[in-house]
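hiii so um. not sure if this is the right channel but i have a protein structure encoded as tokens and i wanna go backwards to a sequence. like what aa goes where. can anyone help
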């Protein structure tokens, strides 16, 4: 993110999200069509595990395929220790054709919705819980990232189940020559 000026020109970079994403301890979320969950091998259905292992959703995983699927999940999550997988200089995928969305912590004055005006507590709770101005952007790592707009820290990333079948390709050493867009 850059800090701009009132003249409309770009200023110096305030932060570089690619350098701030930690390789562990990230909050990675997914959704299976019924409920949200963290992106961890033990939380995935067998069908989801099969897709990460490069198989079809109805497969029966062998021990080798389970290991391969777990390695894909670990790689996507930020693990850079497996030297047999594609080397990368950043955990953040390239951002192509994804417009960042900025959401501030402002209360936009929809007081008609507040409990003080006979509305429910939902709007009041929503405003009270807006603790970070946030930038959301999709990246070519299969994730929608949420960054703290002030610091650049990744608040969480969301991995839609629709991209699971594509994620193994990101780990392949030939990926740089066979670039795909997610």
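sure thing!! here u go:
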């Amino acid at each position: 993110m850059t800090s701009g000026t009132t003249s409309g020109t770009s200023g110096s970079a305030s932060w570089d999200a690619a350098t701030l994403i930690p390789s562990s301890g990230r909050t990675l979320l997914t959704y299976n069509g019924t409920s949200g969950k963290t992106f961890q091998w033990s939380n995935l259905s067998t069908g989801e595990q099969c897709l990460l292992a490069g198989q079809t959703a109805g497969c029966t995983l062998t021990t080798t395929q389970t290991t391969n699927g777990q390695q894909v999940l670990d790689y996507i999550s930020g693990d850079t220790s497996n030297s047999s997988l594609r080397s990368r200089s950043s955990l953040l995928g390239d951002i192509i054709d994804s417009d960042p969305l900025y959401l501030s912590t402002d209360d936009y004055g929809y007081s008609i919705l507040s409990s003080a005006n006979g509305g429910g507590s939902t709007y009041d709770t929503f405003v009270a819980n807006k603790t970070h101005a946030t930038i959301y952007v999709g990246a070519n790592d299969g994730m929608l990232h949420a960054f703290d707009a002030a610091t650049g820290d990744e608040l969480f990333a969301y991995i839609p189940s629709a991209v699971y079948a594509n994620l193994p390709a990101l780990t392949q050493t030939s990926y740089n020559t066979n670039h795909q867009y997610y």
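oh and Residues 116 and 168 are 51 Å apart (CA to CA).
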